[in-house]
């Protein structure tokens, strides 16, 4: 998108009050049964924002009981027309759009996310995803099947029931919507556990669900699930061939790693560059990383915020030290930044080899590692030599090479001459240890429905 086409970004709200800090069950706010609370912090300043009620087993039981009750045959939720269900989900999208500035400010304060990214990318994505799911609500249907014999056979797509949904801290609002949008569209009820580091936007959305005013259930809690879809971690390969548009590859690979301080499951964290362009690619990547301005993510002009918390911050610094000790060349960064908040300098390593910790472990931080390859077969083998398989990138002007490599890579998503492009229309999920099942798109709806086959004996079929 060109700068001239960028929408205006408002100024973040100041003196934000966090009024929703309780557990939301059966359209009502509750204190925890135990009386326990936990603090929620701003990772840029380390200040406490508020305290949130801490859900425990008894709270979970209450939430699941309420969600089961709402799913009973004959309940208002089960007897509601599918088109009305879609209208309610669209209404929730309207309310999120209304509160977009508030939610973006909250997401930035609680999660360390750049305000501009929260406002444009995260909130924009949430609204589009909900509207996409709303459109599916009255289009989830079965088929008639020409079974042998005098039978009439059809299938029904039925909701599976109560869905337990656990939200990660790196994209708390986006992941909440990815979970509840398709689940509710299919007619399920949900029990949601936001991440303890970033619960505030989920709790605000609960208040909007109450405002919508229908039988949609949410709560902070855990559930034992009989059926599981998991979108887990990754150590995603990004392969740059010598015939690629070098500047475009540098920029996409850079954003593929450094977006949201590297705290993305799809981060392009194993960067393979063909030998003949390796040195130039490293040079341009280092120049790009050095342009960052670090600081409070609510401040205009800042383009890198803090890591989520102290634990993650220390883990990343430890992995950076391992890279230095194991012989990778530190090109820039390599340490903490500032005297307050969990900031880490944008870091680039070259001369990285496959056996180093930084090449094998998911860092989840602003640490780019650039490796060299010589041949097509070699890089495919190395790219697939991992327990993960969430995503991958390929940069080449050769369409035959792009198709060959994308077919060979063991990844749920492969981007060619781009990286990190996601849409509500397209399925997302991983191979191997990066999870099972899919989210988004029509495939994502399948995770929230059961197929029932109904066969009726008839006197004579007329086929």
From TrEMBL:
What residues does the Aldehyde dehydrogenase domain cover?
211-454
Q: Which domain of life is it from?
A: Eukaryota
Keyword Oxidoreductase (UniProt): yes
Recorded GO MF terms: aminobutyraldehyde dehydrogenase (NAD+) activity; benzaldehyde dehydrogenase (NAD+) activity
The reactions it catalyses are: 11-cis-retinal + NAD(+) + H2O = 11-cis-retinoate + NADH + 2 H(+); 9-cis-retinal + NAD(+) + H2O = 9-cis-retinoate + NADH + 2 H(+); 4-aminobutanal + NAD(+) + H2O = 4-aminobutanoate + NADH + 2 H(+); 13-cis-retinal + NAD(+) + H2O = 13-cis-retinoate + NADH + 2 H(+)
Extract the InterPro entries matched here. Ald_DH/histidinol_DH, Ald_DH_C, Ald_DH_CS_CYS, Ald_DH_CS_GLU, Ald_DH_N, Aldehyde_DH_dom
State its Enzyme Commission number(s). 1.2.1.19, 1.2.1.28, 1.2.1.3
Q: What class of enzyme is it?
A: oxidoreductase
Q: Which terms are listed as keywords in the entry?
A: NAD, Oxidoreductase
Q: Which Pfam families match?
A: Aldedh
Catalytic-site annotation from UniProt: 231
Keyword Oxidoreductase included in the entry's annotation: yes
According to the record's subunit comment, the protein's assembly and interactions are:
Homotetramer. Interacts with PRMT3; the interaction is direct, inhibits ALDH1A1 aldehyde dehydrogenase activity and is independent of the methyltransferase activity of PRMT3.
Belongs to which family? Answer: Belongs to the aldehyde dehydrogenase family.
Q: What is this protein called?
A: Aldehyde dehydrogenase 1A1
**Lineage, opening ranks:** Eukaryota, Metazoa, Chordata, Craniata, Vertebrata
